[in-house]
Amino acid sequence: MAAAERLPIKIDATSNGEFRPIPLSRTARAANALAAEQLGRNADRLGLDRRSFLQSLCGAATTLLTLDQAYAASGNDGGRFVLPTAAAFEPAAAAELAGDEFIFDVQTHMVDVAGAWRTEAGAAWAEILERFPQAACGEADPVDCFAAEKFIQEVFLDSDTEMAVLSFVPALPEDNPLTLEEAERTRRLVEQLDGAERLLLHAMVIPNGAPRIDPLALMAEAAARYPIAAWKCYTQWGPAGTGFALDDPATGIPFIEQAKALGIRRICIHKGLLFGGYAPEFGRCADIGRIARRYPEIDFIVYHSGFEAGRAERAYDPDRAEHGIDVLIRSLQDHGIGPNQNVHAELGSTWRYVMRDPTTAAHLLGKLLTHVGQDNVLWGTDSIWYGSPQDQIQAFRAFQIAEPLLEQHGYPVLTPALKQKIFGLNGARVYGIDPPARRKKAAADPIARRRQAYLAAPQPSFQTYGPKTDREFEALLAERGGLPA
Fold first, then answer.
1. Which of 266, 267, 340, 399 is the most exposed place for a label (fewest CB within 10 A)?
2. Which strand ranges, in their side-by-side order, compose the sheet holding 163-166?
3. Contact predicate 436/391, CB 8 Å
């Protein structure tokens, strides 16, 4: 889609780099085309130029209403984007897309653009740059699309996000695009936030990294040098090409015991969005219930909720719980972990992907809220890979589980109060944050002042920065030395 045709709600094939892009369905492609046409008509109706209308709440509402109409007409109506029809051209009717929730994004990413992880310059690197999708952001070096200033604009200026957690991708320290040892960009970013503590930091842990690294020593060093809020690990990945289970006595258990000893008892685990070339069993959630039962004092945050892109989620069936969210639910049930205990489900990339499939979205959210708990589903977006998360926020504000699924499966209604929990109150509780106090402190920080000035003349890009095709995905893998992003 040409730059002028970008939509304020981005339904496309973009991947976060951890899974191969999956093309849109014919219905989704047609819905995007209809939305582009309707945006032009509604802009003309209101006497606005197209760019101004795209930036308005009515532009977002027009896109969501058109998407909803197209999905419903195709029979994919288990979930709906529910807005008044007038929201497409009356700002007052579209006002519910504005919202005033405390939005705490517990999974975001950026990179140290000058870090040692960069591959050597040369013909191969030039070829990668030529194919690399991030060049669309206008920078000569596409990696600059993930720098600190881009992160600030996309996450804190172009969206309603108030706080975020900065996380990591799988790699050894010398290869990681954002290591604690080489986190110059991160430190500068935190300094720009001037003490308002809008950004919390993870520390990447590779429990199966020996003998190349000493993971427990690195944990102790990170905790001593940085204000680490939680640990991040990838159970499917390892530098030797094999993953690990969280309750493996040689890897997982020492890792968790060290987290306890250091007093940082939040562990974020990548589950789902399976990596090609690695054993899938370590990427699924069978070990979550086992480890949560063994360590009730630890908060286990399941990144992506175990979702597997490209697979439709339907009602939970314990006899067929072999993939995706169902593996997580089955593991919790088998080990006596009830809703709202010490396992939390995070929505980064997951919600963004299922925006293209409302019925899967409805079952996914309904199952997580029922079995993991209404207090334990956490908002995450995996941005900056998807550009600004504002479209994910607006789509979630409008989304509802259809009445037949509520009745058939006992899913909860997505009330404003429940959405407030998911958007930020649940994550705030897990991370020990007082939202009213944090909002008061942040109201006068440099980001708030910049945002106030920026909103007088906003310039959202409506871009996504991750790979959208196989070719782009292969270029990203080449840049990362074969590692997922």
1. 340
2. 104-108, 163-166, 199-204, 228-234, 266-270, 299-303, 343-346, 377-378
3. no
Which residues on adjacent β-strands are paired with residue 267?
231, 300
The DSSP-derived string for 182-235 is: T-HHHHHHHHHTTTS--EEEEEE--TT-TTT--HHHHHHHHHHHS-EEEEEEET
Mean pLDDT of the chain: 89
pTM of the complete model: 0.94
Length of the chain: 485
Name which of 168, 230, 193, 233 is nearest 431 in CA terms. Answer: 230
- pLDDT tens digit sequence for 317-374: 999 999 999 999 999 999 999 999 999 999 999 999 999 999 999 999 999 999 999 9
Fold of 104-442: TIM Barrel (3.20.20)
Q: What does the domain layout of the chain look like in residue ranges?
A: 3-98, 104-442
CB 427 within 8 A of CB 376: no
At 413-468, the pLDDT tens digits run 999 999 999 999 999 999 999 999 999 888 888 888 888 888 888 888 888 888 88
At 394, the amino acid letter reads: Q
Q: Supply 7's token pair.
A: 């939509």
